[in-house]
């Protein structure tokens, strides 16, 4: 007998919950904000809207389904199953945070604060949840396959990201490495910089776009479902031992960018989740390219 589908509700702590964790009580949190010219009232209202959204979404899960909840901070310890339908209740960034832990499960994005969130990935309202869950499990339900980027280290460590992957120093130091196309005999160009960013079409509305604008790049930004990545080196430093001729480019399906570490420590993390990063050291290499896995976003 096959198991019934499981709806996994993904959420994150609200600003109000974080304030209570830090200050202990509502009154202490209110005093802290008021001393900085802010009122706690709007923070509480946003918290209440989020909690109400979670209740409405949970109530929309069919009675014959199983259900579970996971908070953003616990995603790296949560075991998603192939038959899950993932319901992200929150902001666009929470979808990206969740994507790296999935393996093709359909994702429904529910916007808890319409008008405040851009709604690029959380496109739906709470009232749509029941219909979206049915569509996610029905054959022929409309989904978009959003391209993801992956980093694979020479020790088999692997990292996925929906928006972008950053490789660089863990602090404000300079990373030293060699950078070049994967699969060629060319050892790559020795570089010193504040890091390398490899981004997707979904990430083209964020960090990748800011670098693209800063450089005045003539490359066309990829679309979210397009099998193409752009990459940029941040603040490459020219010196007698390091060059700056390979500071931007694009990658198609099957193409890769290889970085070989020539400093004590380089971190690799995706979509801003630095706490869940790969750590590489002298002599290790990592390949960046389009991931075979994509995010199935229920449209």
UniProtKB/TrEMBL annotation:
InterPro entries: ATP-NAD_kinase_N (IPR017438), ATP-NAD_kinase_PpnK-typ_C (IPR017437), NAD/diacylglycerol_kinase_sf (IPR016064)
Swiss-Prot/TrEMBL keywords: Kinase, Transferase
Gene3D superfamilies in the record: Probable inorganic polyphosphate/atp-NAD kinase, domain 1, Probable inorganic polyphosphate/atp-NAD kinase, domain 2
Molecular-function GO term, any one: NAD+ kinase activity
GO biological process: NAD+ metabolic process
Domain of life: Bacteria
Stretches the record annotates as Disordered: 179-198
Protein name: Inorganic polyphosphate kinase
Species of the source: Streptomyces roseus
């Amino acid at each position: 007998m096959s198991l019934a589908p499981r709806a996994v509700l993904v959420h994150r702590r609200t600003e109000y919950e974080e304030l209570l964790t830090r200050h202990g009580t509502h009154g202490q949190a209110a005093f802290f904000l008021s001393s900085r010219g802010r009122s706690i009232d709007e923070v509480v209202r946003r918290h209440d809207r989020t909690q109400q959204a979670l209740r409405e979404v949970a109530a929309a899960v069919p009675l014959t389904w199983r259900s579970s909840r996971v908070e953003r901070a616990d995603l790296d310890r949560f075991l998603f199953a192939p038959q899950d339908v993932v319901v992200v209740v929150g902001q666009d960034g929470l979808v990206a945070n969740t994507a790296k832990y999935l393996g093709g499960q359909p994702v429904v994005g529910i916007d808890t604060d319409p008008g405040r969130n851009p709604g690029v990935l959380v496109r739906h309202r709470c009232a749509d949840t029941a219909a979206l869950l049915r569509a996610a499990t029905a054959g022929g339900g409309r989904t978009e396959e959003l391209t993801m980027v992956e980093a694979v280290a020479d020790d088999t460590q692997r990292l996925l990201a929906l928006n972008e992957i950053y490789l660089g120093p863990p602090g404000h130091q300079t990373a030293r490495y060699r950078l070049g196309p994967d699969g060629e005999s060319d050892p790559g160009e020795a570089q010193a910089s504040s890091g390398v960013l490899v981004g997707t079409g979904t990430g083209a509305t964020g960090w990748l776009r800011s670098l693209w604008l800063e450089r005045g790049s003539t490359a066309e930004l990829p679309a979210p479902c397009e099998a193409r990545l752009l990459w940029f080196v941040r603040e490459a430093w020219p010196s007698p031992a390091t060059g700056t001729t390979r500071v931007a480019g694009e990658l198609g399906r099957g193409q890769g960018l290889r970085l070989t570490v020539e400093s004590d420590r380089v971190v690799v993390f995706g979509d801003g989740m630095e706490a869940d990063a790969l750590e590489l050291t002298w002599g290790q290499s990592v390949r960046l390219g389009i991931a075979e896995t994509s995010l199935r976003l229920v449209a």
